[in-house]
Specification:
The complex is a heterodimer of chains A (117) and B (489).
Chain A (H helix, E strand, L loop, with lengths): L6 E5 L3 H13 L3 E5 L2 H10 L5 E5 L8 H11 L4 E6 L15 E3 L4 H8 L1
Parallel strand pairs in A: 1-2, 1-3, 3-4, 4-5
Chain B lengths: L12 H9 L15 H11 L5 E5 L4 E4 L1 H4 L15 H4 L4 H12 L5 E7 L2 E2 L4 E2 L2 E11 L2 E11 L1 H23 L3 E6 L4 E5 L1 H6 L10 H4 L2 H4 L2 H11 L3 E10 L8 E13 L5 E10 L1 H36 L5 H22 L6 E2 H12 L5 E4 L4 E2 L1 H20 L9 E9 L6 E9 L13 H8 L7 E6 L2 E9 H6 L1
Parallel strand pairs in B: 14-16
Antiparallel strand pairs in B: 1-2, 1-7, 3-6, 4-5, 6-7, 8-9, 8-12, 10-11, 11-12, 13-15, 16-17, 17-19, 18-19
The chains are: A alpha/beta (117), B alpha+beta (489).
């Protein structure tokens, strides 16, 4: 590992997928910070200035969805790289800022690795 | 040798001859040479006219008529009506004509009737006949001596007019009851000439006839509909609207209603080519559009569920295997699940019923991202859901294999992926070929092969129509399947 490990905030409301994604990120040698919804994610963002990446689902069973969370992160923590995922092929593309990459579900470890490096 | 006193009976065809041979002395009139001058003048005029004419003379209403009138009578009437008394001949219809004759005879003037139904007994059966006729007085020394009838049998014309009226009414009723909305607009201000029930229903039962579109449906102005009408009126080019949204508000108190319309504005041309108005016809397809939108929503939700479920299955599988399997196995598993998921993306485009082979192939190539090393040719062809999943998974295995061992493992290798449809007596057959070239020398794998090789050997429709040849210059795979089976499966 030539660079310091990334610290990835993973926001996903399906626990099994959250668990596996966290596992996958750690397996790649990075640090994963799990959050089950956007409210918890925002609290973690305030407490953890070391977070470098945000990996979020769109539908989050919460009043804030992944796209709104991404917008908040772009506004307040512009240094954080963002990747949005969803089971929808084109998740409300109109609302998705064009500079945020999108990864359809299900995804592979290689795809996460490619984004982090 | 003609008696000069009865010269007035000369000519007149069949009726003239009958008049001359009739024994008038047996009638109250007596011999023709004794008839008064005014009767003679009228009879001569009648016998020599091509117009149907008839005379009642004297208090007994003794009858005379000409050849043209005779055409309207059957054997039940003619010839016995000649010289007979009016009341006896016309007993059946006396209630109709009696008072009219009485009116004229009593000096009350003349009568005129247009297209009047006067049933007559031509062939022994009463028959409906329409007449246009007038009764006029014939002078006799300053008194009224008789009645001259000038008439026309207008039954044919009457029936034609009636049929036309009925047809017009029928068309008007069809127009009114048509399920689609119909309106006729006239002039450059688009004044409603008519609007059927469906149209009035659409605009909220507003009274539109006689008003301009601008007055009757003011909310249509800002939505561009009057502008469209103006354009059709000036150019004569029809306008066809498909699934066009219009917001209608019958009055200020009611909430606006959104309608989706399929409609046409068609210019109405006069015989001289000028445009006099616009014919409006269409259907309110709001229900269809909303149903489509709901279906689209359900489809998107279903897609989301399928892909989330696959992601969850993948999570369970990797969590289960992580402690016992190496990274390569995990990678193969997750990539297969992703390939399956991408095949579903192709299906969702057609409500899960089918997918185009071109799209499946393009999607697989995009996933691996080595487009420049592919030559792809083949026509569009719809595949059913099972064939779609089979093809997507087979392509995934061939790709993975090519990257690991085949043409894509070398810097210079390339792949030709082509398919065509061959006509066979049993029906069209899809032939798909995967040809690798420029890779390392091919060695036939030992044993029966793994999942990938088994999957490829099952073929496109599971029947195993597959030829794999381990040509040293590159792997060649040819798969065949009946087109009908591919669409069904």
């Amino acid at each position: 590992m030539t660079r310091p490990p990334a610290v990835v905030l993973v926001v996903e409301d399906e626990t099994l997928i959250l668990l596996d994604t966290v596992d996958c990120i750690e397996h790649l040698g990075h640090v994963a910070v799990p959050a089950i919804d956007a409210r918890r994610a925002l609290e973690l963002l305030k407490r953890r200035p070391d977070i470098t990446h945000l990996f979020t689902d769109v539908n989050l069973r919460c009043d804030i969805d992944g796209i709104e969370l991404a917008a908040a992160v772009q506004a307040h923590w512009p240094h954080i790289s963002i990747l949005i995922t969803s089971g929808h092929m084109l998740p409300a593309t109109a609302r998705l800022a064009s500079d945020i990459p999108f990864l359809p579900k299900p995804y592979t470890a290689e795809q996460i690795q490619a984004w982090l490096e | 040798m003609a008696d000069t006193r009865v010269l007035f009976l000369e000519g007149g065809g069949e009726m003239g001859a009958l008049m001359r041979s009739h024994d008038w002395s047996a009638t109250p009139l007596g011999s023709p040479d004794t008839w008064p001058q005014s009767l003679r003048v009228t009879i001569r005029l009648m016998l020599n006219s091509q117009h149907p004419m008839f005379i009642w003379w004297g208090p007994e209403l003794i009858q005379f008529y000409n050849d043209a009138y005779r055409q309207t009578m059957g054997p039940a009437m003619h010839p016995k009506a000649l010289g007979a008394r009016g009341r006896e001949t016309w007993e059946d219809i006396w209630p109709i004509i009696g008072p009219q004759i009485e009116l004229v005879m009593s000096g009350g003037g003349a009568t005129w009737n247009v297209e009047q139904l006067v049933p007559i007994n031509r062939d022994g059966e009463p028959e409906n006949v329409w007449w246009t006729y007038g009764y006029s007085p014939i002078d006799l020394d300053g008194e009224i001596g008789g009645v001259l009838v000038v008439c026309n049998d207008v039954t044919e014309q009457h029936l034609r007019t009636e049929a036309y009226k009925n047809e017009t009414l029928r068309i008007a009723r069809q127009f009114e009851e048509a399920p689609g909305f119909i309106a006729m607009l006239s002039g450059p201000d688009h004044i409603f000439q008519s609007a059927n029930a469906a149209y009035r229903q659409l605009v909220g039962l507003r009274d539109v006839v006689g008003k301009s579109v601008r007055e009757a449906v003011p909310e249509a102005v800002d939505q561009g509909f009057v502008e469209l009408l103006d354009k059709v009126y000036t150019t004569g080019q029809p306008f066809v609207g498909r699934r066009t949204l219009i917001r209608l508000q019958p009055d200020h108190d009611s909430p606006p209603e959104d309608h989706y319309l399929d409609f046409i504005y068609q210019a109405v041309h006069e015989p001289n080519g000028t445009i006099s108005g616009i014919f409006v016809e269409g259907q309110d397809v709001t229900e269809h559009v909303l149903a489509e939108q709901r279906l689209e929503l359900v489809n998107r939700e279903l897609q989301h569920r399928v892909k989330n479920t696959l992601a969850t299955v993948q999570a369970i599988a990797t969590q289960t295997l992580r402690s016992v399997a190496d990274d390569e196995v995990m990678k193969t598993l997750t990539q297969r699940i992703v390939a399956l998921s991408r095949a579903h993306d192709a299906l969702i485009q057609h409500n899960w019923t089918s997918a185009d082979i071109v799209r499946i192939v393009e999607s697989a190539i995009d996933n691996f991202g080595m487009r420049e090393r592919f030559t792809v040719t083949g026509p569009s062809l719809e595949l059913g859901p099972n064939a779609t999943l089979s093809l997507a998974m087979i392509l995934h295995e061939l790709f993975t294999n090519a990257i690991k061992y085949g043409a894509l493992s070398a810097e210079t290798g390339w792949i030709t992926l082509c398919w065509e449809i061959e006509g066979k007596s049993a029906g069209d057959e899809l032939v798909l070929q995967w040809l690798e070239e420029g890779g390392p020398e091919v060695v036939r794998p030992e044993g029966g092969g793994g999942f990938g090789s088994k999957l490829v050997n099952m073929g496109l429709d599971g029947t195993g129509e597959v030829l794999q040849s381990y040509d040293p210059s590159g792997l060649r795979v040819e798969m065949r399947a009946p087109v009908a089976a591919l669409l069904r499966s």
